[in-house]
Structures are given as structure tokens and as C-alpha cells.
Amino acid sequence: MNRRDFLGAAGVLPSALVQHSQGITHVDTVRTGPALKSSVVKSSSLQATGDSPGAKAKTHFNGPTKQLAALASGLVTLEPGARPHPPHRHPEEELVIIAEGTGEIVVDGVTTHVGPGDMMYAEANVLHGIVNTGKTHMTFYFTKMLAKNA
Fold first, then answer.
1. Which PANTHER family does this entry report, sorted A to Z (predicted)?
2. CA distances in angstroms from 61 to 45, 74, 117, 136, listed in the order given
3. Cys bridge to 23: 31, 44, 52, 67, which one at CB 3.0-4.6 A?
4. Kind of pairing, strands 128-132 and 103-107?
């Protein structure tokens, strides 16, 4: 199931929006393949991806580990006013750390203004989202984790 299908099935996006080819910048966790190995990934070596206007993601790690069914981690840059996707929910737990810029994060219906050093934790299947409300670009780091028995 891809991201757009998941958002529609979860009732987060109206069906008309799911059918429309709206740009979404999202990293789906990879659950197959060999376990990730300890390493360092240089951001400069990564290709930025994403279809949402003003939102680009770089994925440093994505795959199963010896202890997790899936781990995805990387960074996202948002231009002023941009968001990677509408508020959403997924089976992975997620951490977000704001590196630069300012914005708003909504978690389970509560909106919080955020800036550098602020951090979000969203439990599995809790509605959450982020938007750059500042006048400069915003960068945040994300890590999504899915337990093997989840």
C-alpha cells in the first residue's frame, strides 16, 4: 500500500484528494531486504526527493534492522509555507527534531509552535503533521520505527 492509498484508507484524506495527483513528500519505511548495517551516510551524497511543492526529503537509512521490522531516518527541508503532506497517521512511531527554522506541529489535535532544538514524538497511528510558518526555510530530521511484532 503506498502513502496516498494509506492516507485514504485511514480516512485522513478525502477520496477526491486521494484520487487527485497531489504532491506528497513522504518516506515509506522499507520492511524487506537485508538488515541495515552500522555506517555513516553523508547528506551531500543523497538525492533530494519529493513531489510536494517546497518540500524535499533526503533518506539516510531505510530498511529492517536486527531488532526492528523497519527503520527510516533522514531530513526534510521546507520552504516558507510548505508542508511535506497533510496531517497523517501510520503504524510506525516517529521522532522529529527541528534543526532550523520555525513552524507548527500538530499531534493528536494539539498544535505547537516549534523552532530549533524542539522535538516531536508521535505514537503509532496518532494523527500528526508539520508546516513551515516562518519566513526562512525549515529543516527537520525524522526517524520512524516499526517493531517486529507491531
1. CUPIN TYPE-2 DOMAIN-CONTAINING PROTEIN, OXALATE-BINDING PROTEIN
2. 13, 7, 22, 27
3. 52
4. antiparallel
pLDDT > 70? residue 20: no
What is the architecture of the domain spanning 3-147?
A: Sandwich (2.60)
First to last CA, the chain: 17
Strand partners, 11: none
Q: Decide: helix, strand or coil at residue 11.
A: coil
Q: Rounded to an integer, what is the distance from CA 107 to the centroid of its chain?
A: 13
Angstrom distance (rounded) from CA 3 to CA 29: 10
CB 56 within 8 A of CB 77: yes
Give per-residue pLDDT as tens, 102-111.
999 999 999 9
18 vs 5, higher pLDDT:
5
Number of neighbours of residue 36 by Cβ within 10 angstroms: 17
Question: Count of CB atoms within 10 A of residue 70's CB?
Answer: 22
Average predicted confidence (pLDDT) for the chain: 89
Give the residue extent of every domain in the chain: 3-147
User: Which pTM was predicted?
Assistant: 0.84
